[in-house]
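Can't attach files on this board, so I'm pasting raw text. These are the components:
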Amino acid sequence: MQALAEDPDRWRYGYDLCTQLGLQPGSAYPILIRLADRGLLETSWETNQVPGRPARHLYRLTGTGRAYATSTAGAVTAGAVAATTSTPATATRRSRPRLGSV
Amino acid sequence: MPVVVLLAVLVAAGLLLVRLGDGKGVGDVPARVVTAATHRLPAHRREWGQAMVAELAQIHGRVRRWRFAAGVLHVALFPPPRHPRRVLAVAGIGLLVSAAATVVAGVTVPGLSVFAAVLGLLLGGYATIVASRSQLPRPSMVRVIVAVVALAGLVAAVAIVLRIGAVHPTATVDHTHYVFSILFALILTGYLALALTPPQLGDPTDTGLWWALCAALAAGAVWISVAVTTPVDAEEILPVLAQPVAAAAVLAASIGAAAATRSLPAGVRAGLLTAILAAPIRFAVDLAGMLQLGTYALTDPYDVSAYPHSGYPDVASYLLSDRIGGDIATLVMLPVTMLVLALLGAAAGSGLRRWTARHSPSSTA
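---
Top answer:
Structure tokens for the assembled complex are below.
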């Protein structure tokens, strides 16, 4: 969600998100689907279609999604600060992309 | 070695079906895989399937395209459930039922407890996958009948093996019974899943299903009538009749479905479905006929020499165990051999349709 929240007004492509986050489509698309099911992600189809190829699906956070991303970012930052002050190993585990980091 | 050959044939058949499923013949293999996989998504996830197909068009490089296709396959096989609690409930019930079945089998037919456990887990897993694909379309009448016949075949096949395990416990226990237990559970679950899977290969109607259902029931009727009318000789006649009757049914269904739908893939699927519906019936009838025999005698020279060293306490257990193993192997190999016949039949049906169209009075006028 943080990746989508970086520029919340911008529509993003699925494969670009996979590449940015280093996720396989088999992991990334189920996350996008769940976010859309929960009303955190809005989807749209490309209108400026290039001839000869199908229109692409676009994604960006809804208002609820942006609010959730902001609150999650706050929680993660607080957790990261707490982890840094305790053990480095705990902080390393948090760097792996999870549902909240898309 | 036979397993490797079987796997190679199955992979080739899968690729062929992927090729047949995409009648337009557009794109490379990853594109075809993605298109075929997204067709398997539940209706309420189809838009996501189109999204992934469109995304693949932007990906270049063979490795990247294959990796993306693999990811799409994963999504198609395990789409995110809309009602996760329902899926968890089904999975929990499946686990409980399989645990109960294993305990009951362990007490009553100990030799089949592994089979009960594996079958319970596989059927529970299948039910969980079905539950995760919520919003299934309302099934038509023929689909319901096909499902009933498939379930009846599975129940009959399991019941006859349980009966043998109860009457002749040593017939279901030897050094290979774990392997055959797992194989039998796998093949029965696979048959059920294939029979209940909605057709995706070019037949939007249920015509192919009707052809398959009628052909399978006709084959089953022949086997049952032989077993009922000639109970003494059925043990000898049924194995001889089994393959020709199955082959005739598969050919009839594939020719009829391909001609009626003007679709080669629909004919192939009808032929395969015929084999899948009929095979458990044949399995149950064959073993029931064998079990009905009051006396068992060794007639084959190989059996006469092998029996004393086999470890079985009686001839009945030796012969029944041998027959169960043979029939399970037939269940494994049948779809492969029948796929060839289904392809031939579907090609003949398509050709027949074209020939009829060319020589009909309206086309010649």
